């Protein structure tokens, strides 16, 4: 009896042993299959992405700083370990991996941008390739358990996240809206199809190529300006978008900007930023331009200063308008501003005002809604600065300040709008403060 039981027990153990052996053999075979599979999927679907000179889907939204290729190493195993160590793979649920979420960004409708059809095709191929390869990798326990890669061997974008975010196409467009689109009224009369001087100019010029302000809006205008080569990304200061209106080259519209004036500063700021972005010139967070603190909106309120002294002729004159601070004094920051060269022989200065508001303020939000903001009628402090030292010509970034102040006065203005209804004051009313 005992013997039989023993025998049975023995055979059972033996049988179990065989079973376990067979089982682990199957598992080992499956793992080998998965490893081989991962390798072949990598060769077939991932490596070609790496080797191809064609842009990956990331470039639809990221102008610089990141590319899918940045994450790929020469072998399946190294690529997997690199992604895994950066938390971009979910080894238990490969379909939930963050790298797939990055590739899928364009389809999620994050509002940043509508995906284009061409990119959708590319993106689909990338997504399916990575999904298939990750599934095979994660079926291989040896791969999951492989040693950590040293930090310096991780394959990742060359730029930090903040720089990557800054080089997004939607950010570049937002900057264009703030800096260039907001200034368009300086140029619309001649450069937008519905401009009041266009019919005459087309008759003179014989073509419509100069209509770079597009009726579809800011984005179409930005694309057009870039496609027409009006921005020189290698030498931003040589961009026609600046040189034409500053009359550094022949411009049928004449001189519309002085080097360093507010319009010039705004156009130049975007041109510099765009150029540096697309040439991958921002390397670290420190390189990024400071976030703007104020928003500008051009108005239809004109200010005229008569009897300007002869010494001011041809020099840039800046007017800052300060509103009451509600406590009997004047707000420190101007609510509106304007600058333009004084006429050389007319003893006259006149220009439209630009409203200024802190970023995120109620007024700033209003700018986005109303095409041209207005100021309420009332008393305002007017401060006038003249660039007698011509410092802006030497440094377009320079600002006129206390040392350039020629005087100030308080006016009572109704701020009627339109060229025919200018608010007028005389230079003689300006008192030198302090
Ligand atoms: C449809 C637009 C779009 C596409 C396509 C796109 N991204 Fe992004 N990306 C964004 C947006 C928007 C953000 C900012 C997300 C945020 O701030 O929350 C971003 C941010 C990033 C960041 C910075 C980290 C972060 O989470 O902010 C990285 C890295 C990144 N994307 C990588 C990629 C890669 C790699 C691809 C291509 C496989 C890609 N992106 C494709 C829109 C896109
Ligand atoms: C009074 C009319 C007028 C105004 C205002 C005007 N321009 Fe022009 N501009 C023209 C005409 C006409 C041309 C085409 C002939 C030429 O290149 O000089 C032109 C050409 C240009 C070009 C070259 C376009 C191309 O496709 O080659 C640029 C860039 C330009 N202007 C920028 C500006 C900017 C920026 C402003 C506003 C700050 C402005 N212009 C204001 C009349 C004007």
Question: Could you give a quick summary of the protein structure above?
Answer:
The protein has 14 helices and 7 strands.
What does it look like?
The chain has 434 residues and is of the alpha+beta class. It has 3 domains: 2-148, no CATH class; 166-287, no CATH class; 294-429, Immunoglobulin-like. The protein contains 14 helices and 7 strands. Strands 6-5-2-3-4-1-7 form a 7-stranded mixed sheet. Residues 1-21 have low confidence and may be disordered. The structure holds heme C (2 copies).
Characteristic key phrases:
Immunoglobulin-like; alpha+beta; single chain; seven-stranded mixed beta sheet; 14 helices; 434 residues; 3 domains; elongated; 7 strands; binds heme C; 38% helix
Structurally, the number of domains stands at: 3
Rough shape? Answer: elongated
Oligomer description: single chain
- As laid out across the biggest beta sheet, the strand order is 6-5-2-3-4-1-7
Order of helices and strands: HHHHHHHHHHHHEEEEHEHEE
- Radius of gyration from the CA trace? 33 Å
Could you tell me the number of beta strands?
7
Residue share in helices? 25-40%
The fraction of residues in strands falls at 5-15%
Mean pLDDT: 90
Distinct compounds present: heme C
- The N- to C-terminal Cα distance equals 120 Å
Could you give a short account of the major beta sheet? Answer: 7 strands, mixed
Query: DSSP helix count?
Result: 14
């Amino acid at each position: 009896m005992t013997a039989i039981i023993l025998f049975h027990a023995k055979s059972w153990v033996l049988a179990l042993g065989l079973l376990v052996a067979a089982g682990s053999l199957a598992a080992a075979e499956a793992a080998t299959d998965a490893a081989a599979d991962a390798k072949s999927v990598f060769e077939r679907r991932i490596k070609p992405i790496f080797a191809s000179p064609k842009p990956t889907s990331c470039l639809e939204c990221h102008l610089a700083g990141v590319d899918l290729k940045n994450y790929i190493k020469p072998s399946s195993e190294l690529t997997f370990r690199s992604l895994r160590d950066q938390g971009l793979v979910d080894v238990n649920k490969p379909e939930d991996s963050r790298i797939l979420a990055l590739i899928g960004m364009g389809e999620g409708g994050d509002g940043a941008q509508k995906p284009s059809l061409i990119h959708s095709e590319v993106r689909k191929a990338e997504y399916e390739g990575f999904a298939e390869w990750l599934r095979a990798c994660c079926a291989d326990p040896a791969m999951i358990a492989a040693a950590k890669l040293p930090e310096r061997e991780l394959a990742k974008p060359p730029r930090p996240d903040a720089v990557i975010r800054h080089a997004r196409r939607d950010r570049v467009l937002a900057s264009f809206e703030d800096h260039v689109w907001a200034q368009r009224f300086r140029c619309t009369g001649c450069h937008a199809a519905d401009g009041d001087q266009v019919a005459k100019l087309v008759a003179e010029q014989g073509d419509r190529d100069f209509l770079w302000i597009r009726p579809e809006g800011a984005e179409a205008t930005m694309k057009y300006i870039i496609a027409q080569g009006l921005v020189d990304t290698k030498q931003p200061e040589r961009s026609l978008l600046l040189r034409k209106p500053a009359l550094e080259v022949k411009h049928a519209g004449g001189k519309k900007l002085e080097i360093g004036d507010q319009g010039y500063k705004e156009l130049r700021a975007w041109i510099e930023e765009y150029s540096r972005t697309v040439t991958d010139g921002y390397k670290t967070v420190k390189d990024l331009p400071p976030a703007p603190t104020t928003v500008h909106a051009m108005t239809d309120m004109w200010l005229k200063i008569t009897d300007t002294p002869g010494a001011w002729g041809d020099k840039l004159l800046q007017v800052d308008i300060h509103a009451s601070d509600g406590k009997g004094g004047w707000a420190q920051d101007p609510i509106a501003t304007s600058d333009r060269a004084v006429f050389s022989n007319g003893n006259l200065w006149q220009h439209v005002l630009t409203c200024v508001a802190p970023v995120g303020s109620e007024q700033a939000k209003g700018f986005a809604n109303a095409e041209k903001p207005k100021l309420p009628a009332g008393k305002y402090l007017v401060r006038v600065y003249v660039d007698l030292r011509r410092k802006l010509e030497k440094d377009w970034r320079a600002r006129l300040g206390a040392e350039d102040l020629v005087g100030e006065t308080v006016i009572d203005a109704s701020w009627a709008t339109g060229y025919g209804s200018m608010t007028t004051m005389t230079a003689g009313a300006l008192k030198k403060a302090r």
